[in-house]
Amino acid sequence: MDRGFWEQAGAIAWPLTIALVLGLLVHRALLALSRRADAHAATRMRARITQVIALPAAVALPLIFLSVAVRAVPLPEDWLDRIQHWLGVGTLLCFTWLVVRAIGAIERRILRQNPVEVADNLEARRIQTQTRVLSRIAQGVAILAGVSIALMTFPAIRQIGTTLLASAGIIGLVAGIAAKPVFGNLIAGLQIAVAQPIRLDDVVIVQGEWGRIEEIDSTYVVVRIWDERRLVVPLQWFIENPFENWTRTTSQLLGTAFLWLDYRTPMAEVRKALQHICETDERWDGRVCVAQITDSDQSTLQVRLLVSARNSGDLFDLRCAVRERMIEFLNASHPYALPRVRVARAIRAAGDSESRQAGPREIGEQTTSPGAEDVNDADVARAAAQPE
Q1: Which secondary structure element, helix H or strand E, spans residue 8, and what is its range?
Q2: Cα–Cα distance, 41 to 47 (Å, whole number)
Q3: Beta strands in 185-326 (DSSP E)
Q4: Highest mean pLDDT of the ranges 65-74, 140-149, 298-307
Q5: At residue 213, what are phi and psi to the nearest 5 degrees?
Q6: CA dist 165 to 151, 162, 168, Å?
Q7: How much is the pTM?
Q8: Could you write out the DSSP letters of every residue in 89-124?
Q9: 327-353 core/surface letters (b: 16 or more CB in 10 A; e: else)
Q10: Nearest alpha-carbon partner for 307 in 263, 258, 269
Q11: If pLDDT is split at 50, 70 and 90, which confidence band does 97 have?
């Protein structure tokens, strides 16, 4: 009996031991290969392929070795079935992992071939937006399919699925209502990938905030606000709500700087100065440089300085520079063109005060007091003759 026990133990141990040792060696070798591939993935295609395959294979191959070894082990049939089932589930999940990594590798390659760090990046942003959104959706579908197939290999889960199909009406309605936000965002992602109301690096105004599209995920969009805050917005929001996209068709923009000047302002000199300012500023793209009087009131003119730039960042800086340099020019060459409202009010106020003080002295002989009409010359003479 003891001899039979040890023989059976040996028959079980040696196939499993060989499989474990071989699997461990392969696992470590593939991990080392993956680390080496990471160092060269940016420049070599073979390294990128190795990087994608190595990690899933480092887990899947030991499982396959164990699955082969288990078939040579004298164990009860139900034990063998359970072990084979779990090993098969693990291998299936590793394959799903491999598919997800392959999709990610294809996405990264397309993004590298279409950088957005160039001056005219409209086409690159379009390709990057489509690639990112479709990649996230494809990865989500792959994960969902892999997990679903793995779960359906369990008889209990398969039975639950059959029960759900039998009562698909009510449960489908409840599930549809519960999953509406998720599926709504997925459908919105497809709409954005096709219609592209927004793209990566677009300049947008969302809920009163100015920012750039920094990330487009499968269910949400990250907007980088000008002060480095991040605004996370569901994808579906961009389909259902109006928003401003400053770079929908081109990154070129027009911007204004307003000045309030005196009526004596020489507009011809202002236009010459504006043209000189734009021509000497590298942020001006050479398209628009206009000075116009757009409004007036009782004391000042509103002058609009309209300029253009290649992108929103350059435009903001150019507007500030134009406003600052134009004020310096007017202050140095035409100071009378600057508003003089405060000085005029001060002179007017001083003149009114002097009039009030001088009035009684200048017209005093024409002014009478109450009761003066009853005093005659005799009364005045008597008052003067009385001793003090």
Answers
A1: helix 2-40
A2: 5
A3: 203-206, 209-216, 220-225, 230-234, 244-245, 253-261, 284-296, 301-309
A4: 298-307
A5: -70, 110
A6: 16, 5, 5
A7: 0.58
A8: HHHHHHHHHHHHHHHHHHHHHHHHHS-S-SSS-HHH
A9: eebbeeebeebebbeeeeeeeeeeeee
A10: 258
A11: very high
Distance in angstroms between the alpha carbons of the first and the last residue of the chain: 157
- Is the distance from CB of 62 to CB of 26 less than 8 angstroms? yes
Distance CA 203, CA 193 (A): 17
Closest to 238 in 3D by CA, of 199, 198, 200: 198
Which strand (E) or helix (H) includes residue 242?
Answer: none
Between CA 336 and CA 271 the distance in angstroms is 17
Mean pLDDT for the stretch of residues 158-176: 55
Looking at this protein, which amino acid is placed at residue 54? A
d(Cα 212, Cα 206) in Å, to the nearest integer? 10
Give residue 112's Cα distance to chain centre.
Answer: 20
Say which CATH class 253-337 falls into.
alpha beta
CA distances from 46 to 29, 35, 41, 49, 105 (A): 17, 14, 8, 5, 12
The pLDDT assigned to 368 comes to 41
Span 28-77, pLDDT tens digits? 998 888 888 877 776 777 888 888 888 899 899 988 888 888 887 777 77
State the CB neighbour count (10 A cutoff) for residue 308.
20
DSSP secondary structure letter of residue 268:
H
